[in-house]
Amino acid sequence: MDNLDAARLQMAFTLIFHIVFACIGMVMPFFMIVAHKKWLNTRDLVYLKLTKSWQKGVAIFFVVGAVSGTALSFELGLLWPEFMEHAGPIIGMPFSLEGAAFFVEAIALGFYLYGWDKIPEKFHWFTGIIVGVSGVASGILVVSANAWMNAPTGFDYINGEFFNIDPVKAFLNPAWFTQALHMTLAAFTATGFAVAGIHAYQIFRRRHIVLHKKAFKIAITFGAVAAILQPISGDLSAKDIAERQPVKLAAMEAHYHTQKGAPLYIGGIVNNEKQEVTHKIEIPKALSFLAFGDFDAEVKGLNDFPEDEHPNVAIVHYAFQIMVGIGTLLLLAGLLFFTSLFKKSWWKSRKFWLLFALLAPLGFVALEAGWIVTEVGRQPWIIHKIMKTKDAVTPMPGMIYSFHLYVGLYTILTIAVTWLMGRQIKSLNHPNLS
């Protein structure tokens, strides 16, 4: 395996793990503060136990997210020194602000964890809000830096050199809003359904039903609302990609030939050699309308672009189909939940709880698929139309050993988190509510 492949695999592997830790760390504080507020309003000991259990989960994912995120920051310099040499001064601002947001989150979390019965109740609860808001801010700032790689702005590029750098313009690049919105909603959807699914499984097993129903309702409300809003952000993202990265759109839909009134493909098997998609469902003119708001608009095909600038079409297309398919399923599940609020008899059915238990991991599968679309779809560019990934990789040999080291580190982190969260779930089922 050469250095480029090893570096790509290492970055992909660590991002796949870190994104889960980071998203849970962003979203779970909001579950915690809702449960806490319900405790303050009702003095129901179930909500107190739920709050204290979720705060431990927040602490666990804060620590693990910090470790995995720090490792990722080292990777940028280790694997992609040419990229960092030029991009560092341009996108340094969002990374610096992310560090400040992380610092605020750490202080607020310290107040929250150790402030029980020591600081005023309202202020204590408010520190939980700061934890949640600063966590989301951290995520948005990092996504802004990634969005810059898809829509590089804030500099003049002349003869291979970067001049007239404007960090603010780079931060507020054309892709930052749509990508940050889509990612934030995806984090709430994935985490909401995952946490709700865990509690649904406990209800299905008839364990501490009262507590788990309260927990389920809090988590699934966030997840369902985000899932219902997600198609709106998806539409904004698709229109943005159609304008700025038409080759990525062509790969997402596996369209090889430019045409007006382009159809939308659902499913299908990609044959890159024959440049066709078989076993697909085809909706006439739908892609033209979704991308440009015009049923007869022209959509560029892959053949309009140099072959060496094509991403891996099969991977991008399948990942996109998985993301959209699961997103649609979770949207329907969200509507099902809100309908169940008016049909309380459904909550007595074990099938209802089994359904949501089975849905638990799907949000994160869709989240990972979405990141594959974003990152693989940009290839072969690390900075779109400016720098190719092969030109940014380190010349130092032996990156395969670094890859193995990071695989070991993230595997250990995953095992540790799984064990710790298993203990938390078991503690929730203990009859003592104090």
Short synopsis of the structure:
With 434 residues, the chain is mainly α. It has helices spanning 3-42, 45-79, 81-114, 121-150, 167-171, 176-204, 209-244, 246-253, 286-292, 313-340, 350-359, 362-378, 389-392, 399-428, and strands at residues 156-158, 161-163, 259-260, 264-271, 276-283, 298-299, 381-383, 387-388. The strands form four sheets. It has a two-stranded antiparallel ribbon with strand order 1-2.
Q: Strands, helices and their partners?
A:
Layout: H1 3-42, H2 45-79, H3 81-114, H4 121-150, E1 156-158, E2 161-163, H5 167-171, H6 176-204, H7 209-244, H8 246-253, E3 259-260, E4 264-271, E5 276-283, H9 286-292, E6 298-299, H10 313-340, H11 350-359, H12 362-378, E7 381-383, E8 387-388, H13 389-392, H14 399-428
Antiparallel strand pairs: 1-2, 3-6, 4-5, 7-8
Q: Which features characterize this protein?
A:
434 residues; mainly alpha; two-stranded antiparallel ribbon; 14 helices; 8 strands
Structure report:
The protein is mainly alpha-helical. The chain has one domain. It has 14 helices and eight strands. It has helices at residues 3-42, 45-79, 81-114, 121-150, 167-171, 176-204, 209-244, 246-253, 286-292, 313-340, 350-359, 362-378, 389-392, 399-428; strands spanning 156-158, 161-163, 259-260, 264-271, 276-283, 298-299, 381-383, 387-388. The strands form four sheets. It has a two-stranded antiparallel ribbon with strand order 1-2. Helix 6 crosses helix 11. The radius of gyration is 23 Å and the shape is globular. The termini are far apart. The mean pLDDT is 88.
